[in-house]
Structure formats: structure tokens, C-alpha cells
Amino acid sequence: MLMKNKKWQKIIMFHGASCPHCHRTMPNVDKLIKEGFKIEKKEVWENEKNAEEMRKFKDIIIPACGDGLGVPAFVDLNKNKAICGEQTYEELKEWLEK
């Protein structure tokens, strides 16, 4: 069942090139990708195209971040939900599997 969920899941991780929280979260994201989760990483501090795409999801990212568009931010396109901030492997996996 989990493999079926992962197969159809479409997650975008918006991150900043020099964001320390993003750098600490990245190994957890890479581990989840190796496990089969479909997570697309998009850098937004130096890539305006990616930043513009992130702004398209502001209605779900801002409530998750609390006060603006923060990074790292994860958007689940299928469930129209977001999570924001530095995440442990366990926290991120639990969010992905909800």
C-alpha cells in the first residue's frame, strides 16, 4: 500500500542555497527519495523561476510557515498541503505518509 502512495505522490521541496535549516534537512530528503518518495527539490534564493513557482503556493505555504514564505517548505501537490521548517527524517516521513 505504501509503495502505491509513494508512486502517485508529488512533493516539491523549496529550499535556499545558503539556508542552514535546508542543509540540515537535505540528507533526510535524500534518504526518503532513495526509499521511493517522489520529492522534487527547487532552490528559490538564487533561482527566480523557482521562487515564482513557490509564490504560486503561498496560500498553503504561509499558514504552514506561520508568517511568510519560509524555507525549507514542502508542498504536497496531491493533498494540497504544506509543511515548513527544518524536519527530522521521522517528522518528514510521518507527514508524507499522512
Q: Can you offer a commentary on this structure?
A:
The chain has one domain: Glutaredoxin. It has helices at 2-8, 20-34, 48-55, 58-65, 89-97; strands at 11-15, 39-43, 73-76, 81-84. Mean pLDDT is 91; it is low at 1-5. A hairpin with a 4-residue loop joins β3 and β4. A 4-stranded mixed beta sheet has the order 2-1-3-4, with helices on both faces. It is built from 5 helices and 4 strands; from the N terminus they run αβαβααββα. Helices cover 48% and strands 18% of the residues. By secondary structure, the chain is α+β, with helices and mostly antiparallel strands.
Q: What's the CATH class label?
A: Alpha Beta
Order of strands in the sheet with the most strands? Answer: 2-1-3-4
In CATH terms, the superfamily is: Glutaredoxin
Poorly predicted ranges (pLDDT <50, ≥5 residues)?
1-5
Query: Would you identify the CATH architecture?
Result: 3-Layer(aba) Sandwich
Percentage of residues assigned to helices = 40-55%
The termini sit apart by: 13 Å
What is the count of helical runs? 5
- Name the beta content range: 15-25%
